[in-house]
């Protein structure tokens, strides 16, 4: 078992080994509290104020909660409303620290796996930088961008925000409700009270329902070949073929559960890697018929061949009408205030 898996098991279990780290909370709790208080007290002077509406899609827990599907769904919805959104993101484990705009010729090594996937799926400008303010400024140079979506960055208080959407895992909830390193929380659970929207993918989450809580379904629609994107398979093939599930994401169990809900046999073998894992051909060479996430596919396509029986799942998040109606009104208000 990897350290990442061991931590996750402890955080989302009843009484895991990370409770032995409780004395460290004497350090982490004041730091987290001070960071939030400083932002609220000096927001106008210390945080970058963009002239464009900034929507953050983030979380208060470590690990995957479905931010990427939400960012894609949000960008698609904004375009249908007549906006021209741009996306800012950090770009984990990329080869450069420079601010970059993702292009058709970009690789996962250059910009990161998530930025490349977001660029392809959302069909809008994506700026990558560890300093999100620089990424925002890069998008502001593009005159046609009129709304900015931040993929993660809820705790990045150097960047001011107008709307916060906090993603919570429906199955795992907030774990043991403790801050790092004892639990998975980056900020206290009470932080949810100050977000504009709380969203989970799938069922209702394991937390007290708040008035600004919404949930939607992640619909899988087809299987796509990792190398030859024109080759697709129907979802019914999940039942009829023997698949090996491969994932290098923050919450691989949720990915496996979604495949099972569409017909994948429960006993299908799986190989889980760390989040943002840099795949090598040797990782997959011994495996035959593989099903993976779209985020992992962008890292694998560089060494995959047409002969490989490797596929990824294309999925879309369905946003509830109640959420989009609220967002529509709020964005209009933000634009009016910023004029």
Annotation keywords:
alpha/beta, Rossmann fold, 339 residues, 8-stranded mixed beta sheet, globular, 2 domains
Protein topology:
Blueprint: H1 3-11, H2 25-41, H3 43-46, E1 54-58, H4 67-80, E2 85-89, E3 100-101, H5 108-111, H6 113-122, E4 126-128, H7 132-140, E5 147-151, E6 163-167, E7 197-201, E8 213-216, E9 218-225, E10 232-233, H8 237-240, E11 244-247, H9 252-261, E12 270-272, H10 281-284, E13 290-292, H11 294-300, E14 310-317, H12 321-338
Parallel strand pairs: 1-5, 1-6, 2-4, 2-5, 6-7, 7-8, 11-12, 11-13, 13-14
Antiparallel strand pairs: 3-4, 9-10, 9-14
Transmembrane segments: 12-32
Enzyme class: transferase
Organism: Marinomonas gallaica
Structure annotation, total helices: 12
Distance between the termini: 54 Å
Strand runs, count: 14
Shape: globular
Give the class-level CATH name of the largest domain.
Alpha Beta
> Could you give me the name of the CATH homologous superfamily of the largest domain?
P-loop containing nucleotide triphosphate hydrolases
Structural class assignment:
alpha/beta
CATH architecture of the largest domain: 3-Layer(aba) Sandwich
Low-confidence stretches: none
Task: Please state roughly what percent of the residues sit in beta strands, choosing from under 5%, 5-15%, 15-25%, 25-35%, 35-45% or over 45%.
Answer: 15-25%
Give the tally of structural domains. Answer: 2
Order of secondary-structure elements = HHHEHEEHHEHEEEEEEHEHEHEHEH
Mean of the pLDDT scores? 93
The helical percent reads 25-40%
Radius of gyration: 20 Å
Strand order of the largest sheet: 3-4-2-5-1-6-7-8
Major sheet, described briefly? Answer: 8 strands, mixed
Might you state the CATH topology name of the largest domain? Rossmann fold
């Amino acid at each position: 078992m990897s350290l990442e898996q061991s931590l996750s098991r402890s955080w989302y279990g009843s009484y895991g080994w990370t409770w032995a780290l409780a004395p460290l909370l004497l350090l982490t709790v004041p730091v987290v509290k001070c960071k939030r208080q400083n932002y609220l007290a000096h927001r106008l002077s210390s945080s970058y104020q963009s002239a464009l509406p900034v929507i953050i899609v983030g979380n208060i827990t470590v690990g995957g909660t479905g931010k990427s599907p939400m960012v894609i769904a949000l960008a698609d919805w904004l375009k249908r409303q007549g906006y021209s959104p741009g996306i800012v993101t950090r770009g984990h484990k990329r080869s450069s620290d420079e601010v970059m705009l993702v292009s058709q010729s970009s690789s996962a090594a250059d910009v990161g796996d998530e930025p490349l996937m977001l660029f392809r799926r959302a069909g809008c400008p994506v700026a990558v930088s560890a300093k999100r303010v620089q990424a925002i400024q890069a998008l502001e140079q593009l005159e046609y961008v009129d709304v900015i979506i931040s993929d993660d960055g809820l705790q990045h208080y150097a960047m001011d925000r107008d709307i916060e959407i906090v993603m919570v895992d429906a199955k795992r909830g907030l774990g043991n409700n403790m801050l790092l390193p004892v639990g998975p929380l980056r900020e206290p659970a009470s932080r949810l009270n100050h977000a504009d929207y709380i969203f989970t993918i799938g069922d209702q989450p394991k937390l007290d329902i708040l008035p600004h809580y919404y949930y939607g379904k992640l619909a899988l629609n087809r299987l796509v070949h990792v190398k030859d994107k024109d080759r697709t398979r129907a979802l019914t093939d999940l039942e009829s073929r023997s698949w090996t599930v491969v994932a290098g994401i923050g919450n691989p169990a949720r990915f496996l559960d979604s495949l099972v809900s569409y017909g994948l046999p429960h006993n299908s073998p799986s190989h889980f890697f760390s989040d943002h894992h840099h795949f090598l051909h040797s990782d997959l060479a011994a495996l035959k018929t593989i099903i993976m996430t779209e985020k992992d596919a962008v890292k694998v396509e560089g060494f995959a061949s047409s002969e490989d029986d490797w596929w990824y799942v294309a999925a879309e998040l369905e946003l509830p009408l109640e959420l989009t109606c609220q967002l529509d009104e709020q964005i209009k208000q933000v634009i009016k205030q910023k004029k």
